[in-house]
Amino acid sequence: MSTTHTNTRTKILQATLDLLFSEPPAKTRMSDVATQAGVSRQAVYLHFKNRADLLIAATHFLDEKLDTDARLAASRTAQSGRDRLQAFVTAWGNYIPEIHRIAKVLISMSETDEAAASAWENRMQDMREGCAAAIDALNADGTLSPDFNTEDATDVLWTMLSVHNWEHSTGACGWSQKKYLTMLALTTQKLFYADPVKAP
Amino acid sequence: MSTTHTNTRTKILQATLDLLFSEPPAKTRMSDVATQAGVSRQAVYLHFKNRADLLIAATHFLDEKLDTDARLAASRTAQSGRDRLQAFVTAWGNYIPEIHRIAKVLISMSETDEAAASAWENRMQDMREGCAAAIDALNADGTLSPDFNTEDATDVLWTMLSVHNWEHSTGACGWSQKKYLTMLALTTQKLFYADPVKAP
DNA sequence: CACACACTTTACATTGTGTAAAGTTGACAA
DNA sequence: TTGTCAACTTTACACAATGTAAAGTGTGTG
Fold it and tell me: Which residues bind DNA (chains A, B) (predicted)?
């Protein structure tokens, strides 16, 4: 039945995530995934037409597990524009470490694979909409800094929240996740608030 | 003589840069480089032990051509801390597009090649020193925002000036180089100046 | 009982890196 | 003039990883 079909497919996707998020980081060659899933390498090609296809599917699979949409949508319930911006920044900032590994693979694959590139670009465009919504909320409240129009502010925020910047902050800079979030809150306030909250 | 040796080596390095900076972007497989240099593929291995070695050498070769050190050192002559920060940001911001292609290859190679990773990391550490010097100058003038200590400000600036952020700004955001520099000036002022210059 | 389907097994093509070793050439020295 | 050395070429091969192809296995359902 299709149950078996689904089970094997799921086993493969789970195996992919297991390898991607294992410590220390493991390789995720097609054969590694197959072995981890307890399945032949060819079985993987039976379900996914190539590695890019598998990793894109694994990304969606992870989305479901993390309930990504719901988590990011939560920031929309905030009352003020400021609260909404901070809620969005925090939600996304906490989301990155959970998807970081697979994001890296997808970004890296984007250099050669068109489908991977477009899958990642879609996610980034969705993310930009979240940035735009937060900036728009700030603007609607009249609390967006007059130094930016909404487009520019959105692009700056979008850039600040990139996976690469998280990686650089927590890697090269050696910041903890907590510090990363603190600095993100501080810098977004200084940049985007019409009247930045000053430290006492 | 060693003249011949040097000439072939130089030809190969130049060929590497020619391919890296060609429009549209060309592949830089060992065989492509060899063909471009008018030399056999094996000759490349005679001068460079592997692809990482070749690309690291090409990076240094480009440094010489661009007189990298001199350009970045120029920012140190600025009088005030504010001028110095802006001079450094502008110098680096204008430097990135000139090294972007080779930086990308080196970064990408860092995922698998230890030598490439450490070559790129060295450059980034050098760059961080430039950031630190600029922030220190601001701090010495008493014009560094009290919201940051010098370490944190350095790390934030360092992150802002990353190659990835340039790529995202001029690529995904669609900004021109001029706009990139303008936004960089604006955001660094808002973040790091004790008393940010306000738009009229 | 058979046959359909999911999966396995085996084998092979392809691409790019890197190694190995024999052959060629040209400049310079005896 | 000849010999030799170094730089380079040519040819060949090993290896890793992706992807294709096709025959074989085993099981549950009509």
Answer: 29-48
